[in-house]
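Progress note, sequence design subtask.
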């Protein structure tokens, strides 16, 4: 999704995430910035949806915020998921990989179920 973004553009996105904004303002600012940088609006929405699904997956892990040292951070878990998807520094580490691949695998299974059910 972000192959065409350079380091300065990624820094701008990271700066938005670090501001103390309410969630809706933050989403609007990131959405506008990514579209301005040439990203397709549907790709931006897909990234937000994926970050939300990753967050829900990670929140199932007991004390995940403590384990990832996110409580002491200016970013939320969802912010770290967005940073992960943008390829920016984050605190998710291997947990980000597990969350992303768990979501992608479960999404693939849902598609297969729909295809099988339609026969």
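Output:
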């Amino acid at each position: 999704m972000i192959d065409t973004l350079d380091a300065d553009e990624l820094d701008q996105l990271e700066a938005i995430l670090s501001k103390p904004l309410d969630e809706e303002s933050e989403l609007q600012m990131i959405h506008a910035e990514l579209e301005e940088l040439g990203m397709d609006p549907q790709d931006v929405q897909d990234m937000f949806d994926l970050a939300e699904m990753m967050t829900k997956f990670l929140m199932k892990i007991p004390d995940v915020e403590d384990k990832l040292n996110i409580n002491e951070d200016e970013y939320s878990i969802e912010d770290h998921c967005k940073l992960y998807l943008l390829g920016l520094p984050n605190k998710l580490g291997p947990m980000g990989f597990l969350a992303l691949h768990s979501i992608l695998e479960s999404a693939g299974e849902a598609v297969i179920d729909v295809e099988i059910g339609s026969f």
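The helical segments are 7-18, 23-36, 41-59, 64-67, 77-86, 94-117. Work on this subtask will continue into the next period as scheduled.
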